[in-house]
Amino acid sequence: MSFLRAVANVLVKRTSVARPARSLGSVKHLSSDSAPLQQGNGSSTLHAKFPGALEASFVTTPKLALPENIEPIPIYRVMNSEGTIDDPSQEPNLEQATVQKMFRDMVLLNTMDKILYESQRQGRISFYMTNFGEEASHIGSAAALSPEDWVYGQYREAGVLVWRGFTISDFINQCYGNAEDQGKGRQMPVHYGSRKLNFVTISSPLGTQIPQAAGAAYAFKLQPNNQRCVITYFGEGAASEGDTHAAFNFAATLDSPVIFFCRNNGFAISTPSKEQYRGDGIAGRAAGYGMAALRFDGTDVFATYNATKLAREYVLRENKPIVLEAMAYRIGHHSTSDDSTAYRPAEELEIWNTVEHPITKLKHYMIRRGWFDEEKENEFVKSVRKQVLAQINQSERIPKPDWREMFQDVYEEMPIHLKEQLRSMEEHVEQHREHYPLKDFKQ
After folding, report:
1. What is this structure's pTM?
2. Where do the segments described as Disordered lie (predicted)?
3. Annotated catalytic residue: which of 44, 57, 273, 335?
């Protein structure tokens, strides 16, 4: 009780109405209605002192801040649709081997997507999402990051894993959910993850990874001599989720070294961008949260590379977040549960699948540099197709994970209630073995 009385006494003293008298001079600088000298344009020479808007000045006439009066953020581009560098100073000067890896990784992803999409259509896997038209945003950004940087993906960032070394067998085993799947068959197809590659396992609910990324980046900042940042990918549809707004605000106020990478591909499933928001895209929201932003051509692998490289340098140097907006077009259906022909014309798709396709643009660039060999690239595509088909054949024959593993990996040490559930399940399965396809599971 003595402790409570002490606390009460402190509170009484702090809330006492008795205050020492102050002269006007001692509080004049805190007054919000002190009238500073006005300039001819109606604005003041001094800033107001309101804590919620320290940089604002007083004006004598009201003026609405209308969105149509704000200049849209421009789209940064390095390479046009013909593969020509618009401004030579923006040439990233990458080595031939690096550019060829960029091209082949995009081709590998594109080829694997086509086969796995058909695999789902044949009923061999339950679900799939292609990356058609967005290959450059994956590869260009991944190439600009350090392998030590953490990645929080959404579900259309398979190219980032391709660049980091996730193998064809890794991809297909995950989609087939067999015993070789690193996730032990616990996730839907295309929900990849790799501890070795610093790629946090994807989860289905939209936007949940974004505040997680902001928190992870803040944790990195607190480490001495930190050289790692966090990048989180999401679509413009996910940017409408509350989690995104919370993440933006937390990252801005905590000064987290996180790159918010938005793939604005034009559609949130079947909802076009014009029906999702009225503002200037996603990059346009950054200023409202006090963050830097950069918008660029997401079909241009060099613009993506330069933008991500610049963003990484910024967040680590300033210990502040940034919003990147990759403007692209989703050529494929949203997923195997979607039919995009119902809400967009074939003519529109044709343009983005040919002239504006990121692989086509890079191919034109490589031809100009003398770095492209048609025959070798055709052989590469055939080789990838052969590897993917062979791996599907193999992955289908690998048993499913041991069903007991569903009780594992939740806690470092399995608690009593899960041990009891496991024991009960084992007894049940043993009594009714004839009703379960146990031969299909790892023993």
Report:
1. 0.88
2. 24-46
3. 335
Helices and strands in the chain: count of H runs, count of E runs: 15, 10
Q: Is 119 annotated in the active site?
A: no
Question: One of 119, 334, 356, 395 is an active-site residue; which one?
Answer: 334
Q: Of 3.40.50.12780, 2.30.30.30, 3.40.50.970, 3.20.20.150, which CATH number belongs to 79-396?
A: 3.40.50.970
Q: Please report, for the chain, the start and end positions of each structural domain, with discontinuous segments joined by +.
A: 79-396, 403-440
Cα distance between residue 213 and residue 441, in whole Å: 35
Q: Which of 325, 322, 165 is nearest to 229 (CA)?
A: 322
**Marked catalytic residue, from 204, 337, 383, 424:** 204
| Catalytic (active site) residue 340 | no
Catalytic residue (one of 118, 318, 348, 350): 118
- Report the alpha-carbon distance of residue 36 to residue 17 in Å, rounded: 32
47-90 per-position pLDDT tens digit = 778 888 878 888 889 999 898 999 999 999 999 999 999 999 99
- pLDDT tens for 406-430 read 999 989 999 999 999 999 999 999 9
204 assigned to active site: yes
